[in-house]
Write a structure and sequence with these properties.
The structure holds two protein chains of two kinds. By secondary structure, chain A is an all-alpha fold. Chain A has three helices and no strands. Chain A has one domain. By secondary structure, chain B is of the alpha/beta class. Helices cover 40% and strands 12% of the residues of chain B. The chains are: A mainly alpha, B alpha/beta. At the A-B interface, helix 1, helix 2 and helix 3 of A face helix 10, helix 11, helix 12, helix 13 and helix 16 of B.
Chain lengths: 79, 485
Amino acid sequence: MSDHEHQADLEAIQVALKQTGELLHGIVSRSDIKQISAEVLRLNEAVRRGAAGRIQSGDHPQDFAMLLLAEADDTNRVS
Amino acid sequence: MMPLPLNQPTDILEASITEVGARLRRKELSAEQLTRHALDRAVQTQPMLNAFIDIWADSAIAQAKQLDLEAASGKWRGPLHGIPLAHKDCFERQGLPMTVGSKVTGTDLGRVTATALQRLSEAGAVDLGPLNMNEMVAGPTGQNPHFGDCRNSWDLDRISGGSSSGSGAAVGAGVIYGALASDTGGSTRLPASMNGLFGLKGTYGRVSRAGCFPRAFSLDCVGPIARSAQDCAVLLQVLAGWDPRDASSLDAPVPDYLSAIATAGLASRWAVLEGIAPCHPDITRVFESFIEVIQTRYGQVGRVQSNQIATCYAMADVFSKVEAATLHGHWMRERRDLYSQAVFSRTEPGLHVPAVRYLEALQMRAKILHEFLHGTMQDLDVLICPTMPIPVPTREEADVETPGKVFGVVTALTPLVRPFNYLGLPSLTMPIGVDRAGMPIGAQLVGRPFAEARLLSVAHQLSKDIAWDRLANMKRAQALKVEKR
């Protein structure tokens, strides 16, 4: 994404966030909306890129806890 | 500001938990004597450190007297019988106030005592009172506009680290033998590292979170800060294990951490995890010299990189902000002015992250962990990297209440720690040396799931190998600062 496109996104999202904070959540911002918008765009982009095309029908959040138990280090035993 | 007066090395408050426990059992001193001594040290250091939200002297002495009575009748509760501890003020105590470092929660009283506190009490620990922390468990600096900033025990002009600021400062100052901390994105490891201590974020689900005020329930891990790996092992022994009150608690075996400390790390396979963030030259120098020590004891240390770390950081950040915004929504509407600027600003983005992104981060978690364990950590037992890429900042440098500064400060302090909250892997910080200002540098050891016994064991051995001496290094840091003036 070019700097120009990023700037345009930032400006567009600022307008949207100003409204949704109050309309959807009833919360009045106390922050610099430009900084909040940049943070939301950064997080959105990073997660979207990390997950792109990789979510499958069988994925479930609880898989994580099961995997922790299944992959336990071999020193975790009661002697 | 005058430096903090340090304990003498022979002071009983500088002994290990095991050693003090043995002296208590031999009746060489009583729990009451020890508690009074710790309280004196707490009162002495409080005006400088501000590590406590409140010092509960009467209650602590009453607990100690009760423990002495029980000991006199032959009843020893456990390995912490008579040991003075204190805890981050985010753990509920039934009928007692819990501030969470905030004015928002007001005078709300704890409903049910946190499981971690219950277990410590059942093992005989004395509770000296609530410790300072970043407001609402959010922030890596120890700055708190409501209760006053907590200061670093090595240099009062530097930050203590957070959010478990009082836990790091009070243990570092030799007031208490250990403290409970909680870690969402480095909140145990950062203050431990910045105060030259050992701090353990266990595997997600290893220690009960019941009764611990959350920042983000998907990430939070309760764990100990102490002055040695051995003391951490004693505390973890008491804390670890499944808890029916915590839905995220995992039912895995709990080994005998103290017995395993001599052997669990043997033959561990190591690699340095590189390429996450550029480090300050002092940190690189001390860290590379520590790697040589590891190679001497454990053999070849490889070098690996992971292209998933940045994703893990972002996904953890989404959990943290969205879950916090969910919890704080009604307070952000009704008590908005009671928040600090930094915490309000850091929570606001959570209102706006799309729900789909949050769920993607949740659904990808097992997949990314699997890839990490079978890719980056393939044939490895321990990954190591510095705990922080920069030296301990001054309070002025890290002032998050300066407009526009909070996101930058958080990003500078947390890049090496937060990703492991997303992965849920056990991570332990240990002191490995000092920078040119004499301030402590920490290394972070990351293991496979439930590798706490291994991490404690290798940290114990390596700490002996480098002959780590906290008090001597604190004294040198204070002298360096005087010289600089």
